[in-house]
Design brief:
Elements lengths: L1 H17 L11 E5 L6 E5 L3 E10 L5 E9 L10 E3 L3 E4 L5 E8 L10 E11 L2 E2 L5 E7 L5 H4 L19
């Protein structure tokens, strides 16, 4: 019984070591930065899904893992309520030089000023270095509720009812 127990522990250790993501990370001399770091701002209207591109420059021979941090300039404009970050950690494969952090802005259906600002910072990188000069970008959230055309964007469901029979036509 002791032998089986020791064998199971040894196999688990081998599996955990073999499955480590850190073993095959990039060892080349690469820098990760925000593509939009100059200019340092992006303007996006509410109710839009957009990507903040991350780029790799330099020698890349394996994947690079990048973690970002998204903050708001106001406690009233909060993550998971007013904006949703699909994933704060992305892996850039060796075959790519650019990936994006996806952010969805939620429409609050209220006329706001354009003082809502998100800051996206590269917080941590595994397999490369952070280009500190291009490590963050500001996203200015533009209101879409003060223009009638902007308020009408989105998915609409239309039903048509026959006025004589009362049955639904479409």
């Amino acid at each position: 019984m002791k032998y089986i127990h020791s064998l199971l522990i040894a196999c688990a250790g081998i599996l955990l070591t073999a499955c480590s993501d850190d073993d095959n990370m990039n060892t080349g001399n690469a820098l990760v930065s925000m593509k939009h770091a100059s200019p340092t701002t992006i303007e996006v209207k509410e109710n839009k899904m957009f990507k903040v591109p991350l780029v790799v420059e330099g020698e890349q021979n394996g994947p690079i893992k990048v973690t970002v941090e998204v903050t708001s300039n106001s406690e009233e404009y909060a993550e998971d309520k007013d904006f949703i970050v699909t994933s704060k950690t992305v892996t850039i494969p060796a075959s790519k030089q650019e990936v994006g952090i996806e952010i969805k802005l939620v429409d609050d259906r209220v006329i706001n000023d354009n003082e809502r600002i998100l800051t996206v910072n590269i917080a941590k990188v595994n397999g490369a270095q952070i280009d500190q000069a291009k490590s963050s970008v500001k996203v200015i959230v533009l209101d879409n509720d003060n223009t009638p055309y902007d308020r009408m964007t989105g998915t609409w469901n239309i039903s048509v009812i026959d006025g004589f029979s009362g049955s639904m036509l479409a």
